[in-house]
Amino acid sequence: MDEQYDAIVLGTGLKECIISGLLSVDGLKVLHMDRNDYYGGQSASLNLKQLWERFRPGQDPPKSLGASRDYNVDMVPKFIMANGNLVRVLVHTDVVKYLEFKAVDGSYVLNKGRVEKVPATDYEALKSPLMGLFEKRRARGFFIYLQDYNPEDPRTHKGYDLRRMTMAGLYKEYGLDPMTIDFIGHALALHRDDGYLNEPALPTVMKIKLYNESLNRFEGTKSPYIYPLYGLGELPQAFARLSAVYGGTYMLNKPDAQVVYEDGKAVGVSSEGVTAKCKFVVGDPSYFPNKVHRTSQVVRAMCIMSHPIPGTDNSHSVQIILPQKQVNRKSDVYVFCCSYSHNVASKDKYIAFVSTTVETSNPEQELLSGLALLGKVDEQFVEVVDVMEPLADGKQDKCFISKGYDATSHFETTVEDVLDLYTRITGKPLDLDSKDPSKAATSS
Question: Which Pfam families does the UniProt record give (predicted)?
């Protein structure tokens, strides 16, 4: 381990594995280490035995749940936007060839205590029970404007300067009522709170267009999301393979790995009495205790069930967003469900997660609105996780640190952090437009 590397990456979470793969493709000499003996770090997928060891040590899983190896329970459950940046990264790096995806059955939103399908087109808006007759006409006009809108073509702008006009102002132009604004902002644009209303409209319009493009990416899909067979733990391993193909070196089971500093800058990592030298270190917050701070906490319930979530048309995989106003909170609640159809559970078993950003001193209580939607639960585990973020950008101390994973049940914020990390490390943005994301075909 006395070699000189360009980069040493600590932790095999998804973010670290993507960065390791991208840097290896760029021709850098990368050493990747993890204190654990498995891939995935915080974003690992666990089998039943590992799940019980983590939450109920000394106990065995009930035999009624089936074989341990049939389960891949994500510790950070998230769906992938079919036309989003993670798919673009997968296609850009060719990692997509190591993975198989399946479309997610449904995207839903809580409205007045009922779970309703999210309309994403003018046609769906006309049929949606979320809106009354006159509101449907107004919403249809709004959706048509968004579908036609092209930032580069002023003829599609209808006189609105979305770089200056606020999103609240655009909603007002179409006369949309608060309930409609609620589901558009939270279930289509995927904002986590209402702060976006007073910001320029353009980013939100592009987010809604991304939702619609993702919905239309694959023929016959009912949601804009895809999800890998065998769970999200497949993603870090796929990027690890990419890094290895380009010469990256992996060392797992290094519990004593520590960053070495000289004059306040990271110059290497030591483990088992040997130091590997490098120009900079990348890693998750747990490897840099003095260089990160807690910005929030996420509370997450993991539930094993023997049925789909009621009211979701018997969907085997589904996302339900509970907008903050619907549940009297400052932040949204997210429900994520997948099942044996994605090879993450035994036959006829479903895995549901409810997660949100902690706002009170009783985090479990904050999940009740989401848990109430699930019906009977066979087994339930709850954990509260600190979300840590770096104190600095890494350019001075050569420590490039990822952020923790938020409560959202989609990957858009995760990939934003990865792309920001890549830009900070290399000084250039990653070009994701060079390949067509439609190559990331779903399985049947």
Answer: GDI
CA distances to 100, 132, 239, 425 from 92, in Å: 16, 43, 12, 18
pLDDT at residue 334, as a whole number: 95
The pair of structure tokens assigned to 150 is 């092209």
Residue with tokens 């990331």: 440
Q: What is the pLDDT of residues 129-155, one digit of tens each?
A: 878 888 888 988 998 999 899 999 999
Global confidence as pTM: 0.89
**Would residue 414 count as lying in a domain?**
yes
Question: Do residue 207 and residue 156 come from a single domain?
Answer: yes
Judge whether 52 and 59 are in contact, CB under 8 Å. Answer: yes
Give pLDDT tens digits for 37-72: 877 787 889 999 999 999 999 999 999 999 999 999
Instruction: Give the contacts of 53 (CB within 8 A, at least 6 positions apart).
Output: none
- Does the pLDDT at position 415 exceed 70? yes
From the list 362, 382, 361, the residue with the least C-alpha distance to 371 is 382
Radius of gyration of the chain (CA): 22
Of 98-107, 417-426, 435-444, highest mean pLDDT: 417-426
Q: Which residues have CB under 8 Å from 213's CB, separation 6+?
A: 83, 224
Q: Within a 13 Å sphere around the CA of 381, how many CA atoms are in the beta-carbon half?
A: 17
Task: Look at the alpha carbons of 341, 385, 38, 15 in this order and tell me if their dihedral is positive or negative.
Answer: positive
Distance CA 8, CA 278 (A): 6
252, part of any domain: yes
CA of 45: how far to CAs of 86, 105, 236, in Å?
18, 21, 10
> In a 3-state reduction of DSSP, which class is residue 437?
helix
Residues 298, 384 contacting (CB under 8 angstroms): yes
Three-state DSSP class for 110? strand
Cα–Cα distance, 110 to 183 (Å, whole number): 8
Task: Indicate if 144 and 37 belong to the same structural domain.
Answer: no
Contacts of residues 147-154 at CB distance under 8 Å and 24 or more positions apart, as own/partner, are 147/121, 147/122, 147/209, 147/212, 149/205, 149/209, 151/202, 151/206
CATH of the domain at 237: 3.50.50.60
Cβ atoms within 10 Å of 183's Cβ, excluding its own: 24
Domain residues for the domain of 147 are 116-215
Query: Is residue 122 domain-shared with residue 192, that is, in the same domain?
Result: yes
Residue type at position 220:
G
